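User: Show me an example of a complex going from sequences to structure tokens.

Assistant: Sure. Here are the input components:
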Amino acid sequence: MQAVVPLAVHGDVLLDRLYRTHAPAALRFALMLTGERELSEDLVQEAFVRVAAKLDTLREPDAFAAYLTRAVANLAKSHFRHQQVVARHERTLDLNELVVHPVDILARDTLLVALRRLPIRQRAVIVLRYYNDASNEEIARVLDIPVGTVKSLLSRGLAKLREGIRLEGMRDE
Amino acid sequence: MRDTLEDQLADRLKSIGRTVADDIPTPVDLDARVRHRRNRSRAVRRWTAISVAAGIVAVVAGAALVQRTNGPGSVRIATSPTTGVALHDSLQPGTVLLSARGPYVISLGVDGHTNATMVTTKHGNIVYARATDDHRELWYLSQKHGQSACGDVVRADVDSNSSAIVTHAVSFDVSPDGSRLALYGAGDLAAGRCEPATRGAPTELTVVDLASATSSTLPIADITSMRWATGGDYLVLTSCSRQACGALRRVDVPRDLTRPLVDTGVWSSAPGFPTHVSRVEFGQDGLYALDVRTTHTAKGAAVPDSTVIRLDVATPGSTVEQLYSGGGRWDVSQIMPTSSGTFAVAAPVSTGGTLGRTDGPTGLYRIVAGQLVLVRNLAHPGIFTPVTPLFSGG
């Protein structure tokens, strides 16, 4: 048995196949994190480029999907952090606009709006748990964080979500 | 135990998930971006290494060179019109066979006539071609330097008119779903480095998973051809010398290619099981094997005695059906089980320098009730492979 890294790295056919295999799931994950289709596609492409470029140094080439998911989460985090910095400088920040961006999802869905308000790591953990049905251990492996951190992010995320829904409900009333 | 909020959350997320299609087109510049990124990463790593170990010459292992070609430069693929049915068929309607012949891959209908010229190469001879079960891809082996030499394993996308050399091997087969390649040859096949399978060179069978980029390798010698089982879980191998062919061998391929390939050796030694197999092809109702032995005429001339047998793949040692026996009069060289019947390439046997011309010409035949029925004269038939019908999955 041996890794087939050079084959995978060379030739757009294999990249094409890797992309077609893994991009849809990564795009779903990105869309749930960001709520924006266009942004999600950009994030997935960039994440794919980064992971595929390092195929020859990955410890577990089999875990390509996990690496891709982690890269998407990290890029999303960087994106929102950058957005926050830009907004702070411009001093025209509308908090709702920054965290909601409900372009492609239901803008009036209280639950999803509340989800968008969560910090990105909490969002990522919640999506992996409730969309991918991943265990704490699997989430920890994908996001490269300790299991204890997963548990606390999940717990805090759900608590904020409940609170967010309550506040959204009050606003709608 | 989930509460109501958690259930609602799961439902909402799944509804978002359903808005994303399962098939996302690959960005056209993806390959260039990956290469650019890789080169940049390598440069950073190289400079880091140099700074840490100043004065020491860093030997950077060269990456395997897998040549790429695209479209009109070397390969032309003729697209086929759509069938007009709901499910798009990339091949011409009615295609039951592919023929690799010289620089061409040709699709043929049930009457043995050309449906379309699918591929034309400018260099080399195409010695094997196979369509994936979804008919979107043609994989073929193009050789420039003879049978034991390494050829280009090429994947052609029928719809987009594009093709690329994926790797190199002496022989290969693609799994029916197009997800795995079985490669045979010497050298480091997993890294795209093939060496000719000349006498004495250590040869290997390597299975590559194209999606996960993993592979598994098995040292093995004297393989003439190999075929993927319909489910993609094992390979059947044939081995022929100049004198005779041997028994079928089976190699089990694990789903996870970090595990080894398992050579089960001779598949079965049950009575009636073929022991001199020159060709195999999987059909929808089993494995078709061509058993060729040498027999002698009354005058002592050695002639081939061909038998076509269908095996039940679930219990290959116990269920054997003989479909045709040449009786020393016909030299059957290929068999192709299709949804439109079992085809064979056959030529009248030459006895003592005299061809049995009264039996018929060299060409494409169908096996009907134990007899060969001429479909079409073909002086140079090429190498045929059956095409699985697009709707065979039901």
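The lines above are the inputs; the final block is the predicted structure for all two components together. Chain B has two helices and 27 strands.
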